[in-house]
User: What shape does this take?
Amino acid sequence: MKRLLGMFLPFAACVCLLSGCWSKKELTDLAFVIAVGLDKTEDGKYLASFQVVNPGNVAGATQRGGGAAGVPVSIYTSTGDSLVEASRKASEKVSRLLYYAHTNLVVVGEELAREGLDGVFDAMERSQQFRTTARLVIARGHSAKDTLSVLTPIDKISANQIIRTLEFSEMAWGQTINVDVWWAIRGIASPGRNPVITGVSIEGGLKKGKRQENVQSSVPDARVTLNGLALFKNGRLIGWADGPTARGMMWVLDRIHQTNLTIPWEGKQEAIGYRATRAKTNVEARVNNGRPSISVHIKAEGDISEARVPINLADAGVVFRLEQELERNVKQEITKAIETAQREKTDIFGFGDAVHRAAPRLWKKIEKEWHDRYFPELDVTVTADLYIRRTGLRNKPYIEE
Amino acid sequence: MLFQWGMRRQKKQMNDGVQQEGDDHSGEVADVPQEPMSAELAVNIDIIRRATGESDDVVIRRFSLGQETQMKAAIVFVDGLVDEKNVYEFLLMPLLTTSFPLALEEKERFQWIEKKLAAVGGVKHVTEWKQLFFELFSGATVMLIDGVPFAISASTKGGQYRSIEEPQTQIAIRGPREGFTESLRTNTAMIRRRIKNPNLWLETMQIGTVTQTDVAIMYVKGIANDEIIEEVKTRLRRIDIDSVLESGYIEQLIEDQTFTTFPTTYHTERPDIVAANLLEGRVAIFVEGTPFVLVAPALFIQFFQAVEDYYARFDIATALRFLRVLIFFISLVAPAIYIAATTFHQEMIPTQLVIAIAAQREAVPFPAFVEALMMEVTFEVLREAGVRLPRAVGQAVSIVGALVIGQAAVEAGFVSSAMVIVVSITAIASFATPSFAIAISARLIRFGLMFLAAMFGFYGIMMGILVMTIHLCSLRSFGVPYMSPLAPFTPSNIGDTLFRVPTWMFRERPHLISQKNIVRQSGDQKPQPPAPSRQEKGDES
Assistant: This one.
């Protein structure tokens, strides 16, 4: 027994020691790619931009390194026939191993988006490192590379800036959508739903935006800002929706968390502000005589956030009329959003999926022609129940008649 | 190491042939006179003188018995081991002053002395030199009379011992403040005081051919399992060693498994812990000259049970148990996880954190493993220095240490500040483990896990922990599975493992230790508010 063990142990030790730190990679050997930008070059190749963190220059790194003067991120670009090729080729320029496990943002240039995203995400979904929970945005009016090169204040890494803006804007305002690569892939793959993706554009001069001075000013020369929703059809960008139309889409998608509505009161425009604090949307499909129809029901609660006309909010009747006015307002927004989508012949709301759930057999028949034939003529009923729960810290406004 | 084993085996074979020749390894006191005790006082005294090398502390006081007779006699005792007041007042004084009945025969005089004079307890006849010397060095006073070929010894134990103090280890906020001392008798008395029951049995033997150290085993007859008692005795009897200076000698000779980092006997300085363990059916081994008492069998979970768990209410005790198991794991794996996460599994660290760690590591020239090893070794050095140094210097060490492993190392770019945090957490965790014995084993295993983490990442850590768990499950302590009552699973004992149930639910003793007498207390002891009296009931309705 002992002899056997004595023979076995050296071999076991060899297995441990000779394999030696297999696949070990030190932190200082890695280039953390925090965001990936995708564009198309003129000769039809992919132009990939990698926003790589320069750890020594990120705030919070108290130790020495590059010193605080340097920029927190650096952009590397490379071209290739495929994404993976471009990524591998980038190693000619980067002194470290590109590491994608912490890639939290994917920016797609508008041009590439208009050509089609069909095959783009496969490499991301297939890779062991890449996470499909990375946020996805479309660079509106610029290339993805330019969008990533703008330096931002507060969140030093501009990818983080975009991600957090996406998160908080959806939560507070609701005209942009915070989606990840996974959602886009599902949208592209599903026959009953097309994806919508938030657009990002650059305000101000791009050239200055790339320099460190940009973040040394209280009013930066260039800012990255969320701008509208990109509508997709068959994996191609076909149009943009902005403002209330975009919010209408968000209502239907049940992605409104909080938002602010302004409604007229007794002839005065923008008189009353309403802050929705809780919202829930139900989408239901019905089939009548082989014709599908959709009913959308919105339920929201909120407070009065502003009253710029004399109004007696203690009066239940007044509050009731206010609620009705709000409901009309929301319905209008939603109807407009649905009409826009129908005009573009793209079902971004997932009504197709709802029909699929309600009438699977019928769906099989109409699936192929859903977006082009059935969806544009779809009968959509919108109902809304909005409640005013509180009036804020005041009851009567200080303006008297 | 394998090579050494081989060598040893060969040597043993060679030795076997020669062994009969001179087996004097035991170092038995060669000078003990072989001849029988003489009837002549002068001869006997001479023998004692010669055997002890005329040591100054062996006091020999010659005198004449009584006032009338001229019978020569002597008392012999070792200065410092006896209570001198006892010797002079109750032994020497009566012998000198009483008038002796002359009619008595010489031999009967001893009996007479024994019966009438020696006003001390524990009087024995001694006929052999070996026994005489043992008695003498155990603190007895030996009395010799001319013309009598034997002696009597009277128990006059005394001398200076450290008094009972608060224990230095296993400190409790609530609980008795007294700790064991170096005196075996004081220690056993402390247990007697706690368990006033004739079933508390004590057996004493001498171990150590040169030191003749008193070793006592104590158990509660009827609760302790006879097989375990017998096993303990057998293992103690098997010991053939020249000296026993601390209970650690005994521990290492009777434990089940030498090649393990886990302790299979428990040692403590607190009498309340020993008493509690005796009542659970365990056996305590006291060793003269050390305040550390061994308790066997010891279970893994026992090392996480602080004495205060039983004095505090069960909710906080349960919370602390969980905390301690967590602490044990932290002290085991924290540096290993740091190494694995930063060299293999960067994807598992949150983005912000990985960038922050990367920023710190930017200036560090070593791989994470070397960095961690360096810091851990530095810490171990500091700890060792802190323990061994005189108290006054220890302060300086801790200040220098704080600077070395803290700020200076980080500023010099040797290590990252994240590593300092990891090492500090590990250090604090290993201090917070209630039993020092288990903290040491975690300390050793930690380095093994660090190697595994550096080679295989989390996979290596998992393998290491699996091997450790399998090893733990294979251990036995005096025949009792080390991991019981978790594995094998004993549902009725589970209340005192990872959590502690309220005291009224402690119905049963550990099944595998005390196998027959397992019921500890009656059930249905849950405290309840008194039932409302009839009058109150009436008021309510």
User: Anything to note?
Assistant: Residues 63-67 of chain A have pLDDT under 50 and may be disordered. Chain A has two domains: 27-241, 242-401. Residues 316-344 of chain A form the longest helix (29 residues).
